[in-house]
Amino acid sequence: HPQPLSPAVSASLATGSPGSLGTGSGPGAQTEWVDCIQASDWCNQNPHCSSRYRVMRQCLVGKEKEAMLDNNRECQAALEVLLVSPLYDCRCRRGMKKELQCLQNYWTIHMGLTEVNYRARRLHCNLCLDAAKACNLNSSCKRQRSTYIATCNKEDPNKGEACSKKRCHKALRLFLDRVPPEFSHRLLFCPCQSVGCAERRRQTIVPDCSYKDKEKPNCLELRRVCRQDSLCRSRLADYMVNCWVTPQTVSTCPNQDNHQACLASYARLIGTDMTPNYVDSSFSNWTISPWCTCKGSGNQEEECLNFLRYFTDNTCLSEPSRYSHVLTQWITVQLVPPVWVAVSNLFSGPVLPTLFQ
């Protein structure tokens, strides 16, 4: 069994962000780190992380590893996900027990970085990772994000279920209500140029708890349930007003092309029965939808499809692609640049302190 992590480290792991394993902030702050064996144990217990970890190990085996890392989408996606896991920021202590195993875990990630010169690619491809880093530099965003991630990943023993959707939804609403949109919207709408980035964006709201269910209800039934709840009903109506485009609409978005109003209305739906999300990890032709289907609608199929198109075929909602330059500016201006190790120096002198503590 893995050794339990300290509260500070556990909170940091919940955020899934490298470089956040600290008990303080600023220069001179005391840093609490986790060794790579503990980080590996945590990853193996997390289905999302463990599957990417297994993929990454396969990508680094054999003579064709450079081609795999450069051209294989699964390898690229696995590496991008692991970069925001505790494995990226883990450490090893000289002479520690299982030192060799610790170093092997460390190099599973960092050899991947060496092989693909990941720094240059990441700066262009993963604005969602930068959005997460920006959130972690803001105390309110980091605290609220850590809270909803922990809540949405917590098992509900009373119902014998993987999580409590009701508590997860409440935690998400608190996050979106209390955190400024310059942080929360960056996490939800960050533009992507890779599968790994798009998967991170899809995972933002912990969809296994907040979005998915055992079965997909009919969209008209989901709408009926939503309208019975005053909060969901009002937020759905707000979304329709700010996002829906009719044939009579002159521009691509109502309210004089106020795309931010549409994005805000979309975000306010998260944490309700009508919670929407990205349906897959596509980064080019992505689709938004609530968790529902129009199968079995009978003579109401046309009405059902028309309602579903409010999300899936919404040109106003797709405007974040034009809005991405604003997101990029937010991230570039406000994000403190990450500290990167020059990999070429790893073999030219003493082992760097980023590897051993």
Automatic annotation (TrEMBL):
One of its GO terms (cellular component) is external side of plasma membrane. It is found in: Cell membrane. The lineage of its organism: Eukaryota, Metazoa, Chordata, Craniata, Vertebrata. SUPFAM superfamilies: GDNF receptor-like. Keywords: Cell membrane, Glycoprotein, GPI-anchor, Lipoprotein, Membrane, Receptor, Signal. The keyword Nucleotide-binding does not apply. PANTHER family: GDNF FAMILY RECEPTOR ALPHA-2, GDNF RECEPTOR ALPHA. Belongs to the GDNFR family. Its main location: membrane. It is a lipid-anchor; GPI-anchor. One of its GO terms (biological process) is nervous system development. Residues 1-26 are annotated as: Disordered. Pfam families: GDNF (PF02351). It comes from the Eukaryota. It comes from Sander lucioperca (Pike-perch). Residues 36-114, 128-209, 219-316 form the GDNF/GAS1 domain. This is GDNF family receptor alpha 2. One of its GO terms (molecular function) is signaling receptor activity. Gene3D superfamilies: GDNF binding domain.
